[in-house]
Fold this protein.
Amino acid sequence: MPILVKDFTWTQSPTNLQIKIPSKSMNKNNIDVFTTDSYIKIHFNPFLFEIFLLHDVDNERSKCIVQEESIVLELIKKKENDWECLEKCLTKEEKKELRQKILEKCQDEAKEKTEQKSLKKSEMDRFTVQKAMEIDSQQHALMDSRRDAERNKAMNELQQWNDSLKPLNPNINASKHINSNWSYNIKKNENSVKIVELPSSDDEKNENKTKKQTTQKKPAVNKTLASNISKPVRSEYVEKMKKETANRVLPKLRETGEVVITHTPRTFPTPSRESAAQEEEAWLKNITQARRAIGFVSEDLRPEEHDPQWCKEKGDEFFRNGNFLGAISAYSHGITLSNKLPTLYSNRAAAHFALGNFNKCVNDTSTALDLLNPPCEGNRKSRAKCIARRAAALVRLGYLNKAIGEMKAAAKLMPEDENIKKDIYNMEKAWEQNPDSD
């Protein structure tokens, strides 16, 4: 439960406001500061400073300075005037309502800033992409212009070289006579020469006749091949393999079975090693002796001791003698024997509470209340004790609001108990001093 800081000092000027909060035993890394224009909250465990300012200040321009033995708040006033006092005079309900409004407003502002930041980031990304596309298009245009210039330069050089190869006087007269079988007539014009081919000789005619005869004979060959292909071809090897596969006898399938494997029981989860055998045996021996020192070992119990009621009585004896670990061990063994006895859980919760195991105390009391159903007059006091013990554990865990509700429920079951009424009064008083507690 945090302690409210009241011994702070403050000074002011027409424009500034300074608040000095003492903090002698403080870790600078564990300070939580929450400030707005009209509300300031500083938490440094176990102290809490909270104030609702009389007028608004400029939160953006204000400063928080953490010194060795104090925390200094330098606030800038929005209006230049002298304040009559530092904080508003509000009731508990008004403070709660105003605190909730300020928190919701800060959440909305943070959400709006996040949205604006994401929108600005998307706009910057879009602008970056557009600029990259423009630079890319400029680079492509530059590359195209350089390529066109190089191509035009190469074409001009090629044209110049081609023009330099043309003859100055292209007047050529040529006439040749080749054998009686071949002859060409060359007709020359002013700019070009035409070559006319004469009819073929007798040898070429004979060759063409033989080609025609071969082409006429080919279809007959193709017909004979087609007739041979249409007939099925039998293979002795294929027929033999078919007979062998038909007469083959396949072996029977393997029968299913189960293989039972038994392992040596082992306390440790790691594999056993010869080098660590002596160390493990010594550890088990020490653990057994320690368990016997705080209570008993289940292997050492006599037959008449395997009774949950006996375990309860044994645990009660340990609890009265102050041996809370032994009591927990006895109750736990009784629960393993029978998990339907609510007294084992409620008594073990008391032992956990005595040792400071408040979470386990809450769990055991909840289980005991579940087992005490249906509620009746016979278990009224037991239910009231369980609820009160759970409320006490919740107070130790810091859940003061829930503990008050639990204690009031116990008071309804036992209205004559003065201790419960006194506890409720003390819890409500603590709640008024620290309304921020859960």
Remarks:
- Residues 3-99 form a domain with the Immunoglobulin-like fold (CATH 2.60.40.790).
- The longest helix spans residues 92-164.
- The radius of gyration is 52 Å.
- Strands lie at 3-4, 9-12, 16-22, 31-35, 39-44, 47-52, 57-66, 70-77, 184-188, 193-197.
